[in-house]
Specification:
Distance between the termini: 120 Å
Number of helices: 4
Number of strands: 10
Structural class: alpha+beta
CATH architecture of the domain at 135-215: Roll
Strand content: 25-35%
Largest sheet: 5 strands, mixed
CATH topology of the domain at 135-215: Outer membrane lipoprotein wza fold like
Strand order of the largest sheet: 7-6-10-8-9
């Protein structure tokens, strides 16, 4: 009888003490970091985008370009001028002045010098409102031959794309670019098939005003 009583007391103590022991043990356990596949850290990449449009600081004015010229607080000396085929514009008080072949800053300086004879302390503003003289020509066996007005730097492949691409009869490896120099015309070869394969990339030149791309 006494033996059964002692066994009952022991079981009761185990029931009461066991949860306390388990809690104390769990508090002393240092949690282990769970392993997971290594993730790749992707950082934002800062890209620098440079504009390829003609900058008024170094852009050479050409025939057909439209210039906005104004003198502050003088409506009579405020107007838009179209550069004529001979490269000149007409402006009040100073008459004809050469704009073609010059930068906007050079033209502005000369106009200020001429106008100060008539208007003292003037403030002259000159901006290129519209570029119409940056023209190249793509002729021959392309889908849309003709002239292309540029507002950014363009290479030969881009010009061909603007002309609708080559047609099925084009001799793709005999393309030539004609560039008129001061005393002679320079001819550049363009082997289309090799260039699109990543070869002869030096032939994919940047085009200049007046260049003619001929696709036989």
């Amino acid at each position: 009888m006494v033996k059964k009583f002692l066994i009952s007391i022991t079981v009761l103590l185990l029931v009461v003490i066991s949860p306390v022991l388990l809690q104390a043990k769990s508090e002393n356990v240092v949690p282990q970091a769970t392993s997971s596949p290594q993730s790749e850290l992707i950082l934002p990449v800062e890209t620098s985008i440079s504009s390829t449009s003609a900058d008024e600081g170094d852009y050479i004015i050409g025939p057909g370009d439209i210039l906005d010229i104004s003198v502050w607080k003088n409506e009579a000396l405020t107007r838009s001028c179209v550069v004529r085929p001979d490269g000149f514009i007409s402006f009040p008080l100073i008459g004809d002045i050469q704009a073609g072949g010059r930068t906007a800053s050079h033209l502005k300086s000369e106009m200020e010098g001429k106008l100060t004879r008539y208007v003292s302390g003037l403030t002259l503003s000159l901006e290129i409102k519209q570029i119409n003289s940056m023209i190249i020509y793509v002729i021959g066996k392309v889908n849309t031959p003709g002239r292309i007005i540029l507002n950014s730097n363009v290479d030969v492949l881009q010009a061909l794309a603007s002309a609708g691409g080559l047609n099925v009869f084009a001799k793709s490896n005999d393309i030539k670019i004609f560039r008129k120099g001061k005393d002679e015309t320079i001819i550049f070869p363009f082997e289309y098939d090799k260039i699109v394969e990543g070869k002869r990339l030096e032939q994919n030149i940047q085009l200049n005003r007046g260049d003619v791309v001929v696709v036989p």
